[in-house]
Automatic annotation (TrEMBL):
Organism in which the protein naturally occurs: Streptomyces fimbriatus
InterPro entries from the UniProt entry: AhpD-like, AhpD_core, CMD-like
Protein name (record): Carboxymuconolactone decarboxylase family protein
UniProt xrefs under PANTHER family: 4-CARBOXYMUCONOLACTONE DECARBOXYLASE FAMILY PROTEIN (AFU_ORTHOLOGUE AFUA_6G11590), CYTOPLASMIC PROTEIN
SUPFAM superfamilies: AhpD-like
Superkingdom in the source lineage: Bacteria
Length: 148
């Protein structure tokens, strides 16, 4: 696979990197942040972002079993705790927007596990990884590419 284009405005790249870093820092849970970004990237079929965030998660010491089962987190039993499950459900709801909005019960469950500030940063993190996914998958940037 070859990229359709590797051209990306430096201002766009810089703004998204800043937004990503700010959302991750404000969220405050780097491991869960990576799981969220991986899950959104799975849903969006973004090979570039999957490759990148799986490597980051492995570097943080995330257990391979958790990474292997992330795509089936709802069926994975106690592999993911309630807080992680709430974040992953919110990730799916924001990413897919099947009903045209995030269902109240999904948002309320996330709000039970995260304070207002954490939740705001989690939604921002999900939003920005979806933007990255669309930029990379839309241009077909291959995994591991250094030109994008």
């Amino acid at each position: 696979m070859t990229a359709r284009t590797t051209r990306l405005d430096d201002g766009v790249r810089s703004a998204l990197r800043t937004l990503s870093a700010t959302a991750k820092k404000g969220f405050g849970d780097p491991v869960l942040a990576e799981l969220v970004q991986i899950r959104a990237s799975q849903l969006n079929h973004c090979a570039f972002c999957l490759d990148l965030h799986l490597a980051i998660a492995r570097g943080q010491g995330v257990d391979e079993r958790r990474l292997d089962l992330l795509d089936a987190w709802e069926e994975a039993g106690d592999v993911f705790d309630e807080r992680e499950r709430a974040a992953l459900a919110l990730t799916e709801a924001v990413t897919v927007l099947t009903e045209g909005f995030v269902p109240d019960e999904v948002y309320e469950e996330a709000a039970r596990h995260f304070g207002d500030t954490e939740l705001a940063h989690l939604v921002a993190l999900i939003t920005v990884i979806n933007s990255w996914n669309r930029l990379m998958a839309g241009r077909r940037i291959p995994p591991g590419s250094t030109e994008w």
